[in-house]
Amino acid sequence: MYLTREEERILEGEHGWACQICMKILVKLGELFGATRLIPINSAHISGVSYKTIGDAPIEFLRNLVKKGAKTKVFSTLNPSSVDPHLASRLPNECIEKQGEILELYSSMNAKLSLSCTPYYEFSPPKGSHLAWAESSAVVYANSVLGAWTNREGAPSALASAILGKTPDYGVHKPENRTPNILVRVSTDLLNEIDYGALGYHVGKIAKDKIPLFKGLKNPSLDCLKQLGAAMASSGMTNMFYYNEKMKANDITEKIDVGRREINSVIEELSLKPENQIDMVFVGCPHCSLEEIKTLAKLVKGKRLKRNLEFWVCVSRHIKQMGKNFINTIESSGATVLTDTCAVVTWTEKLGIRRIMTNSVKAAHYLPTMNKAEVLLAPIERCIKAAYT
Ligand code: F3S
Asked: H/E element holding 182?
């Protein structure tokens, strides 16, 4: 991999241990994937924030980085943590303290405590700009909907990129690797967010790391595209998709057809039997948009949450601030609006929550393994019907 004189100096340790270790991470990654150089990035989105998912091991590394004066060089946001102020009194002290320390460490490095998987609602990267984002759902959204360019970074590489302001030039940073190579012909009407999620989940399993071009999506909303991409990234390795009906597909030899049968079979695969009693309804995976908050407020206005049932609505701090009136309506109905975390990356099992109803295919995929929860997957209207008297 070719390094500039300045980059070589960093690698040799002339700029201190923190920059040197970050350069080592990026060079190793670049060599592994055949990158020939590093390129500057516009922003970084860092995962590895939730104490529940990272555990103790990386904390020492973060402490060392801070001790050695590491600071982010580009605008850098953080993925959700495992704690929200609403949960602080319900979780063990040790968890709260460790999570608090992780946030302080990131904050000392000048990362923004956005604590959301939807950084793009707060800051939309320019079209064609290079990013180093972790969080698979945000990566797919950035590449496919926003037209920015980012590989799916892991926590260490996103942090190293944030500190150096660079990323190795490989994968979807190169125009020749952004061509669609699997055509997906959708022959059924997609009726709601879980249909879009189910489509993404089904295609993710088949496409693996190929780039799908969808044909037959009828004016999907941005929120539905968000669900499609998040689900696709949870069952496969794809970093992006296309959904432009006018885009030529003549050269694509691999083709798959998706109809109602495939969509329904994903929903059945990820759902419990409906008669099981649920403990919680969870919406906001990925974190809700302003539009979703608005819809939700309309649906729950004047309603009362059932007793012995929790209703979690997860949003970023930014969206909570932007949609204050809608948030008030939602909270007045008895629902809890959480920022900073989500049902997957906090300890729902420690809170006694075993059965979760959600409108997110991504959440339905992760909750059984990461939270030992049983899941019922249903569109938002059915979630509301189940949660309110
Ligand atoms: Fe975000 Fe949690 Fe889903 S981090 S994408 S809401 S699993």
From this structure: strand 182-186
State if pTM tops 0.90: yes
Rg of the chain taking only CA atoms, in angstroms: 21
The secondary structure of residue 153, as a DSSP letter, is -
First to last CA, the chain: 62
Give the residue, by CA position, lying nearest to ligand 1 atom 2.
Answer: 342
What are the backbone dihedrals phi and psi of residue 319, each rounded to the nearest 5 degrees, phi first? -70, -35
> How far is CA 48 from each of CA 61, 62, 240, rounded to the nearest angstrom?
12, 11, 22
pLDDT greater than 80 at residue 224: yes
Which sign does the torsion angle of CA 211, 225, 377, 139 carry? positive
Q: Report residue 387 as tokens.
A: 């949660």
Q: Do 21 and 52 contact (CB within 8 A), yes or no?
A: no
Distance from residue 366's CA to the centre of ligand 1 (Å): 9
Closest CA to 241 of 145, 365, 174: 145
Beta pairing partners, 112: 77
Percentage of the chain surpassing pLDDT 90?
Answer: 98
At residue 389 the predicted structure's pLDDT band, cuts being 50, 70 and 90, is confident
| CA distances for 1 relative to 21, 36, 42, 303, angstroms | 17, 4, 21, 60
Q: Which DSSP helix (H) or strand (E) runs through 185?
A: strand 182-186
For 236, the token pair is 């496969």
Give yes or no for residue 118 CB within 6 A of ligand 1.
no
**Does ligand 1 come within 6 angstroms of the Cβ of 117?**
yes
Cα 371 to averaged position of ligand 1 atoms, centre (Å):
13
